[in-house]
Protein: LON peptidase substrate-binding domain-containing protein
Organism: Rhodoplanes azumiensis
Amino acid sequence: MPMNATYRGPADLPSTLPVFPLPGALLLPRGQMPLNIFEPRYLAMVDDALRSGHRLIGMIQPDSAHPGPEDKPTLFRVGCVGRITQFAESGDGRYLLQLTGVSRFRLEHELAVDTPYRQCLVSYAPFADDFVARKGEKAVDRAALLRALRDFLEANKLKADWDGIESAPNEALVNALAMMSPYGPAEKQALLEAPDLKTRAEILVAVTEIELAKGRNSGDAPLQ
């Protein structure tokens, strides 16, 4: 596998993935996620991913509605595979990573393995559009998205780099806001499983408006 890999479709990715279950973590195609790895089983996972040359890790959330065993929680059926694009050792036994999202996947079934981390057989076929950068951008209601963002920032007395926001393409804007959003695992999973960019933006706007309304009704500040 080359150092700077290009993935053109599902066939370019392995059908077996190591998975990292992490509540509230949302990785999307071409999005970037920093990770601080310290548990021995996940340090081993990173070592093996680097050794394999693929440098791929499947990010997936535990399904809290169907928790399963504490040491092996039930997983949602959809996650996102990311490639390790930055790697550093902390000096105190941790790895500091950056994953860049490649494609969502559907978990077919978990494999019986000897590794300390979990591995799953996955399919990328339902998400073939993930390999096409900026797919569906023109359908996004950018004005509604920016309005919801502005209302959220004002309600929470937060500032933002509006020059950067205004210049960001729709895909990068929608996915970055979704990944950074302060919402819970169920909302994050809905954002992940959205069938297209337009629907993801609509979900993000709807959830934001609901949280803002809750804050107004209770007199408390919205989620931060």
